[in-house]
Amino acid sequence: MQWDNLRIFLAVARSESLSGAGKVLRVDPATVGRRIARLEERLGAALFGKSPQGYAMTDAGQRLLIHAERAEQAMTAALEELQGQPGTLSGQIRIGAPDGCANYLLPQVCTQIMDANPELEVQIVALPRVVNLSRREADMAIGVSPPATGRLLVQKITDYRLHLAASRAYLKNHPPIQRLEDLQRHRVIGYIPDMIFDKELDYLTEIGVQRVAMASNSVSVQFNWLRKAGGIGVVHDFAIPSGHGIQKVLPQLISLTRSFYLIRHADDRRLDRLNRFAAALCDGLRAEVARLEAQS
Which range is the signal sequence, renumbered to this chain (predicted)? Predict the structure, then answer.
């Protein structure tokens, strides 16, 4: 079986549509459909069930998926060995991360890695949800809790801290905050409650805040509300240095600790390029969190 056929099969399996596969492959969706039909005819089995919701793999498709992913890993490893330059990283690597990490840590960390590896291309997918590695939305992901299922490599990167914070302008023009109960007289900024995708992000419930007056599923939106004197909220310590005039509130009473985890496909442990990038990424994140928290 030709690798090109498996490559098209994998694209349809991961995107669950001909149009999605066509975008990934840069091929017309009709061509993708014809290639899948010929592959099914050659194998004598239907690989996908077609419905208004898209293309779902059949049992035969699920069985082929295992072998197709192994072939993909072998092809990737071969290309790395043939094209790579000793001691340097090249090619494209995509990282998925929650937007707090993606906005306030990854740009500077990845820039340092790319400065040392000029042929490297890095894509950062900032999503306020868990990145789906099984669909190859990214080569690796950063999460705030270790996944409980799946064939994955999970490595703890570092702990990080969060505190209540507000702008000096907001605090100057609103009642003083000396106790936790005083928050009831203030606008609280936080996540939209029904869009919290990980229990580790439910900071306000943990500290006993019931009402969120200004809510967003984006950490960046929340942080910009703080910068514009919109209210008070829980902030990553590593973000505080980037917000002029942001200061901690009740740090002696409220201090939260969370962790970042690097999550990868289990089969990728054999890919030297990804292993070296992952090591550099983890080292860089640890150093950057420590540097920024010391300034907060």
Answer: none
